Amino acid sequence: MTDTATPAVIHRADYAPPAFLIDSVTLEFDLVPARTIVKNSMRMRRNPDAARAARLELMGEQLELVSVAVNGVPHAAARAHEHGLTLDDVPDTFELTIVSACAPAENTTLSGLYVSSDNFFTQCEAEGFRRITYFLDRPDVMTTYTVTLRADKAAYPVLLSNGNLIEEGDLADGRHFAKWEDPFKKPSYLFALVAGRLVALEERIKSVSGKEKLLQVWVEPHDLDKTRHAMESLIHSIRWDEERFGLELDLDRFMIVAVSDFNMGAMENKGLNIFNTKYVLANPETATDTDFANIEAVVGHEYFHNWTGNRVTCRDWFQLSLKEGLTVFRDQEFSADMAGGATDETARAVKRIEDVRVLRQMQFAEDSGPMAHPVRPESYVEINNFYTMTVYEKGAEVVRMYQTLFGRDGFRRGMDLYFKRHDGQAVACDDFRLALADANGRDLAQFERWYSQAGTPRVTVETAYDADAQRYTVTLKQGYGDAAPAARATQKGPLLIPFAIGLIGRDGADLPLRLEGESAASGTTRVLDFTETEQTFTFVDVREAPLPSLLRNFSAPVVVEYDYTADELAFLLAHDSDPFNRWEAGQRLATRELLALAARAAENAPLQLDDSVVTAFARVLTDETLSPAFRELALMLPSEAYLAEQMAESNPAAVHRARQFVRKRLAAALREAWLAIYDRHRTPGAYAPTPEAAGHRGLKNLALAYLAELDDPADAVKLATAQYAEANNMTDRAAALSALLAASTSKETPAAESALADFYRRFEKEPLVIDKWFALQATQRGSAARPIIDVVRKLMTHPAFNIKNPNRARSLIFSFCSANPAQFHAEDGSGYAFWAEQVIALDALNPQVAARLARALELWRRYTPVLREKMRAALEQVASQVKSRDVREIVEKALV
Q1: Is 333 a catalytic residue?
Q2: Is residue 64 a contact partner of residue 44, using CB atoms and an 8 Å limit?
Q3: Sheet (strand 199-206) strand order
Q4: 526: Cβ contacts below 8 Å, ≥ 6 apart
């Protein structure tokens, strides 16, 4: 902090402990939308472990300073400035009292204290608390909070904050108060308050130690009927954390509050989690199977933060993955256990596949662009830009590798030691690594490179079989290929890669595995400790030439390069005992064919699909021994965005043409099978969001989507129209509407327009459902005669559209720019012009949301020359007009 400006670039290497500490803080809020008064009383002292500072620097933004007192005496040596408050001449130990004002009703950034639907909410991570009061707003300053809220009782009957309610009552002039005390030290980013007209679903449970706990899910009154699933998810999360990690809820009550205006998915404020309504509200009529699953996962994620993030938090924001990567891993394991327990490998594999699809499509792309950074970044301009796929999803993969190396029991030992050492502390990623290493007696010094090196590692595999000696050698080589410059700059040496492998015989059965030097075979999947740039592993007693099953269960976040033939991939798809690799074989087969077709499409050459691909897909489609959920994933083609990323020069139009050709070919060749699947996997009766029922619906609706690709989509239109009319759940209704929109692209059908109008009439009072309505239209295929940019621009003028609401902006603007690549990347550049307009508009309202949209063009250099130049022009337009650090960091890095 200085009196003039924050540093342009903040570096991890510059970390220094805070010069002052806060032993306790007492906050008093007089909540008024136009001008809220905050009285902040802090017991402070100099930090004996830090260099002595000449003055006290507090962070503060968009605040009006009213008064400052030290030990009850007005302090003249205090200067407020744009970035905070500077106090000279402070003693070593003192009580500092600051009165300030803020304007929640004007706060469109949704960071700090703001008003949404006439209720008060807060969002303090990462640096929102400084918009509430002047403070040492950094994660390594942990203290206890006592909070008193005062407000008009009629307008704000519910007053909530962190911890335990210790007092409440009425005041004069129709006002009332509530006093909350949080017994646990926490950093300011975990502070929260909520005030408004809300109602709660309540449950009382007993923890594993027999203590009674009050659980509450607070929502606006008209949404109370949509809270049961969130409550059940919370109870499941509490039970799972008790059983899997021995971690018990430490507060007497735990609260979830839903708000419609929210920049993120949810926030883990200690004991008072604030959620985007998208991840709380659900009933069969309004939420899809995906929504139900996401709510369970996000409720779990935020609850699990109570220990991995709250009880042990980050020393500084460079350590963000310490809490986020670890907690994403925990929520992934929770979801897998909810679906299949610890033993149902196929059910767990479905979750694993879903997670890896996201990682490959989004995080691998991030690794290849200008925003590439290590799991533990070395520098940033705006911390909000580093809530990234790398920190979260790749960070989770790094944590998963510990479990792969040490097993569930070894990982649990490491977690136990981590909490024993660091409960109540703000620590670093290295502290977590050292706890896992010490608990398992393993030197993990080399493993640190996973935190400090950017880019996606590539592992090249070469194999050889000696029939006479019955020896099979596997040579692994690791590197980064043509990594982005931002990634190359961080690379220091080979990684420790846990590389899981199996060998499959001619009959499709796994072979027993014995490495050279071992006395006996052990198991059929082995995790190889791959630690050198090049390393050879030799298996002995291999009686026949095997087919390798590589990187089973995706044991490390790497790209594997091995020259499988099409027949070998088809064999793995049919026989591999590892469910993930069975899926992976199908994806490799499809990707290879699609990229070859895209190359031909780019040259306007005729397209033809090899019959072997159709045969392989038919085998999966009709194999009733495979679960419906697994078949749905196996029969999904790789996304257009992922395929474009695999090209030396991304050509979205060619990829779209190739992928649509394959979809149509599979639809036509397997028409009768799709019809049979559709009929066989109906789910009559009452809706249930169970993994099994969701799997049947998913496969059935995938069949409907393929049928909608037929040149004569009459079957699909008939089935979709009936499904839409008869649906008793949003999964089937939305899938039917999507199929009707797809069918209308190839052949005009009034059924689609009729269903769109009906959908809006049915759900116009349900904001989350109307978000789906916008998104379905923004992501539809369109045609030369009906470009979707025109549809999107028209929808921008719809009375239900509000760019200030992040969910609504994401549903229309983000869906078009990020989830409709063929239309967004139109050769005329209309999509890029639209993108630039919206980034500039959002930057003036909500820089965090604008920055996320800005990233849609960060990989512009990888596209064809015609698109590249139009993207550059759009980026330069944005760079010349935006004001926020959030967006400037993105576009300036892209343009370098």
Answers
A1: no
A2: no
A3: 199-206, 212-219, 253-259, 272-276, 266-267
A4: 500, 501, 502, 513, 515
For the CA atoms of 255, 259, 264, 265, the dihedral, rounded to the nearest 10 degrees, stands at 60
**What is the CA 887 to chain-centroid distance, rounded?**
20
Report d(CA 275, CA 184) in Å as an integer.
22
Amino acid making up residue 586: G
Compute φ and ψ for 164, nearest 5 degrees. -115, 140
Q: How confident is the model at residue 2 (pLDDT cuts 50, 70, 90)?
A: very low
- From the candidates 61, 220, 302, 889, which is the catalytic residue? 302
497-504/534-539 β-pairing? unpaired
Give the HSE-up count for residue 687: Cα atoms under 13 Å, Cβ half-sphere: 20
In this prediction, residue 345 carries a pLDDT of 87
Q: Which long-range contacts (CB under 8 A, 24 or more apart) does 419-422 make?
A: 419/247, 419/307, 419/311, 419/312, 422/312
Burial class of 429 by CB neighbour count within 10 A (0 to 12, 13 to 18, 19+) = buried
Please say whether the beta carbons of 73 and 89 come within 8 A: no
Q: How far apart are CA 168 and CA 182, in angstroms?
A: 15
Gyration radius (Cα) of the chain, Å: 28
Minimal CA–CA distance to 6: which of 470, 342, 401, 317? 317
Read off the pTM. 0.98
β 20-30/143-152 pair status? parallel
- The amino acid sitting at 531 is T
Q: Please state, in angstroms and rounded to a whole number, the distance separating the CA atoms of residues 105 and 772.
A: 28
The pLDDT-based confidence of 7 (bands split at 50, 70, 90) is low
Q: Which residues make beta-bridge pairs with 253?
A: 214
- 84-88 and 55-59 strand pairing: antiparallel
CA distance 732 to 787: 27
Q: Do domains 1-195 and 458-563 have the same CATH topology?
A: yes
Give residue 6's pLDDT: 54
- Confidence band, pLDDT 50/70/90 cuts, at residue 483: confident
| CATH 3.90.1150.10 corresponds to the domain 313-452 | no
Domain ranges in the chain are 1-195, 313-452, 458-563, 767-896
Distance CA 425, CA 431 (A): 11
Mean pLDDT of 879-892: 97
Domain 767-896, architecture per CATH? Alpha Horseshoe (1.25)
pLDDT for position 749? 73
According to CATH, the topology of domain 458-563 is Immunoglobulin-like (2.60.40)
Q: How far apart are CA 535 and CA 638, in angstroms?
A: 31
Query: Cα–Cα distance between 150 and 147 in angstroms, integer?
Result: 10
For residues 869 and 855, give the distance between their C-alpha atoms in angstroms, rounded to a whole number: 17
Q: What is the 3-state secondary structure (H, E, C) of 825-856?
A: CCCCCHHHHHHHHHHHHHHHHCHHHHHHHHHH
CATH topology of domain 1-195: Immunoglobulin-like (2.60.40)
